[in-house]
Amino acid sequence: MKSKKFVLGLALTSALLLTACGGGSNAPAPSGSAGAGAEGTTGGSVRVLLNADYSHLDPAMGFDTGVKNFYRLIYRTLTTNSTEEGKSGEMKPDLATDLGTPSNGGKTWTFTLKDGIFFEDGTPITSAEVKYGVSRAFDPEIGIGSPWAKQLLDDGSGYKGPYIDKDKDFKAIETPDAKTIVFNLNQPFADFGSVVGQNSFVPFPVGSGSGKGFDAKPIASGPYKVDSYTRGGELKLSRNEKWDAKSDTVRPAKPDHYEFLFGIDGATIDERMLAGQGEDKNAISGGALQPANVSRIQDPSVKDRAVRAEPVCTTYLTMNNTKKPLDNLKVRQAINYAIDKSSLQTAGGGSQLATAANTIMVPSLLGWLDFNAYPTTDNKGDVEKAKALLAEAGYPDGMELTLDTRGTPKIQAYSESVQQSLAKVGIKVNLNVIDVSSFYEVIGTTSQQNDLAITGWCPDWASGQTFLPPILHGDSIVAKGNQNVPQLNDPAVNKRMDEIAAMTDVAAANKAYGELDKQIMETAAPMVPMVYENVMQLRGSNVDPGVVGFDAGIDLVTLSLIDPGK
C-alpha cells in the first residue's frame, strides 16, 4: 500500500501578514511513491469509477471535495494548488503571473494575467472574463458554492450578479486593462492569493452561463473540455486544443481522454478495482474504498495498488441550533456525550480509514489544539451523563429527531451508529435519506434542513481561517448554499473570529483558532466531531496516480498511464 503523506504548507502571498497564513506544517513529509515505480507518459484514456455524479459542473455551484478535484481538469483560476509531491497545500500562479500584489493595507489586491490563455473556442481570457466569472458568485441561485468571493468582495451594494443586475457595474472588481484585475476587499486579507484559487474565481466569457447552462455544457479554460455528458451516467473529456501548456506550469495533463462512469454501486467499484482486469487496469476508484474491503488490500496483488492519504477532513454530526430542542445547549452537550465514537470509527472502516475525532478542526491544520470537551471511556459515550443533561434541559424522556443523511454504505453505517447511540439515551432518530448528488445543496438550503445532518469539512488551505469561519460564523448563514449547517450565530464566537482574522501575528492567529475550536465545543457545542477520515483509493495496475491532492485523494490532474498503449 502506498501511503501518500503531504505537507499542508501555505504559499505566503506577500510579506503583508494580516491574517492566519503560514509557510509550513507539522504534518509529515511525503513517504512512498506514486505508481508502480515507473512514471506515466503522455496519451491514453483514464477511467474514473464513481458511485454518484458530481454535484454541479458549474464551479459557482459546486463546493464538495470530489467536484473541486474534478474542476481543475476543465477550469483554471488565478492561482491553484501545487501538484508538486509533498506541496499540494501550497498555492501557485495559474492564470495570473504571480500570487498577487497587495496595497491599501491589504484591502486591495492586483493581479496580472499571463499571455497565451484562452477558452476552448479560442476566445482570449482577459480581465473582463475573470470579473464576469467571479461576479456570478453573487447570483442568489447560482452562487451557492465557495463563499469566499461573497464574503470578501461584498461592497454593501446588494449586488446580485450579472444576470439579475445586468446594468450594474460591480465596483469591488476593477479591470483597468485587459491584463490587469483589481479586487477591492471589505477587510484586510493577507492570503487573498489563496482565495483566488477557489472555484468561484473561474473565468467565463461575458454573457455566458445563465441558469444551469454550465451544468450541462461547461466552457473550458483548463487542459480538457467536455465532449459528452449524460447526467448520472457518463462524462467524457478530451484535450482542449486551445490550452497552452506553456502558460500552465501546474497541470501535467498527460492522458488524452478521461471517462467518468457514474451510478456504480460502491461494492461493485471495489470488486472491479480489486480484480483489476481489462479496461479497469486503466481506471481508478473515484471514491474511497468501502470499509468492508479494507482487509482485502493486504493481498500482495492489491497492496501496491492502494493509495492512502492522511486525514485532512473532519466528518461531524451537526445539530440545527434554530430548531427546538436543539436550541438548548444542554441538549447539544448531551448528544455529544451520548455518541459512541468507537462505533463510528468501526463504521468508517476502522483505524485504517478513520480516527475518532474530538475537535472540529482536523489535526493537520496549523494551530490545531488537542482537546476533548466531552471525554468518555474509550470514546464509547457516556449514557448516564447524557441522560442527566437531558433531564436538566427538561427532556427526561428524550425526544424524536430527524437526521439528514445519504444512502452510501459508509454514511448509512454512520447514521445507524448515531441512531443506536442516541436510542440509549431516549432519543429516537428518523433517517431522511437524500440523493448523494443533491445532498449538499439540500442541507445547504436552510428552509429544507431538518434537525441533524452528517456532513464534514475540508480546509481550502491549511489555516483555521478556512475551517471555522466558513462553517460557524453567523455571517456565513445564507438561505441557499449555506455552509454553516448548524446555523450557529453566537455573538461571542463571531466576535472572536473577527478578532483573529484581524491579527497581524501569524503564529498567534493560528494558535488562537485552535483555542477557539475548544471554546466553541465547550460553550456552544453546535456539532459532534465524529471521525477524521483517511482516504484510500485503488488504482489500476497501468495507472500512475501522481500525487495526493490537498483536499485528499488522488489529484486528477496528476494522473497518467504507465503504458498508454495498453
TrEMBL record:
Pfam family, one: SBP_bac_5
Keywords (A to Z) from UniProt: Signal
Occurrences of domain Solute-binding protein family (ranges): 90-475
Entry-linked PROSITE patterns: PROKAR_LIPOPROTEIN
Signal peptide span: 1-20
Signal is among the record's keywords: yes
Name listed for the protein in its UniProt record: Peptide/nickel transport system substrate-binding protein
Organism listed in the record: Paeniglutamicibacter kerguelensis
